Amino acid sequence: MTENEILSLFNTLSAGRTPGKQDFNASKMFSLLEDPFSIWCSFHAPKEAAVAELNRYENLKIRTDRNTRDQWIKNEFPGVVFVSGEDETARFKNTLSAMIRGETAIANALLWNLPENTYGSINLLVRSDSAPSLFGSYHYHIFQFKRAHDLKEHYALQVSLLNQILGKAQRYTPAQTRVFLKDRTLDVLYQDHQERLDRELTFWRSIRDGLAKPEAHKPPKAASAPWRVYANKIVAETKDLLMLPGLNTEMRQCLKINGIFNTDDVAHAGLERLCGILEEPHATDSYYNALAYLHHKPVLREAGHFPPPAKKYNLYFDFEATETFTKDNVSFVYLIGIWDKEENKYVSFVAKTPEEEIRIFEQFYSYIKDFSDTALYHWTEYEVKKMKNLAAKNPQDADKLKALCNICYDLKVAVNKQFYLPAPSFSLKAAAPAFGFNWRQDDCGAMDSMVYFTNWLKTGNEELLNKVLMYNEDDCKAMLYLEDKLKTAEILDLKK
To answer: H or E stretch including 176?
Structure first.
């Protein structure tokens, strides 16, 4: 191709501009499918309402995945060209130049199809001589890498869109795209996803143009950053039906069709009317949850499940576990945290490696003074499942782990059986704040703690470990706080 032809191709694909807010990045396909309200916010919410939140876990995972991927590409394609540029325009031009030169493999590629408002990054373009394209007797097809065991729908649509963009650039659309998952490789057929892709892009345009407003999710994660805080606030302030646990989209729509638009409407509608709209137990549950919001107090569901039986020793515990950042890593529980009610103190046991995991459980076991008069309180079955799995892998410690499991008491189950709460769910992060509990750190959640722990291992910086310990301590204390609040709260007992 001549320089004029190259410039003409660039101008055609760029439509005389650079990608902007009105264009769809293929990397946003997950948000479009799973969190479309955040996309709506990006177009229609006040700009000042956006609150930046650093996703340390995702950033670490991306960096680790990129390093692993790039090394694999270098090994498999020794002559690979890694595209770079001082800005995205230069990177796009350099991608086109590499394709025009007929490079065997092109990594970190960027392609635009701005006449159709789409663009995206491609992990690897691989040359094939099986069919011609605009560039000559060859064309390119896509290799994309995903750190997952299964091909999720948004992955398939994302690579199909990238394939569509590639087809516009080279005037030849490959029949398939190769996706490398964690432990297998799949070919994604473009024709299998083309119709769904067109439908989702139409949905995105309707959001962009203000013709559709998707639902948010339930607080405390009503949308992803930077719109999480804004979405949580809007959902709570409007008393949205999302604040009621257990209702799916179809059920909420049924209520709206019948003129019931918020939690106050549900409370005032009355149980009899709700039973004519929703199936049980959703009608009853929604009604009493709405009453809990209306009166700002728990509603008694069924007595006898709460409070937990009093013991001499009462320990509130929580685990923190790693995820695998690289292929060779294994997941393990690296922290067992305990709030000792009688001693009024926080106790922690930390494992630096998978080999040390069983040791901290032995320390946990040894901390118990009297198994016959001790209760271990946790929230959800996660901790008990972890111990049972660990017992199966470590027969020599199975008796100790089973002994720990036998004195466990799931507070979430007990609270759920006895109360309707003025909270959007029975997650600890939703239930405890409904009664005034706040975690002390805004920049350390469950996923962040994994990153802080990983960086602590690398650097030895004790401040990083202290952040993890503080987060875990707050998780433990939140259970006791909620238990105490529910013991002393004024309860709305509708049976009296």
So the answer is: strand 176-180
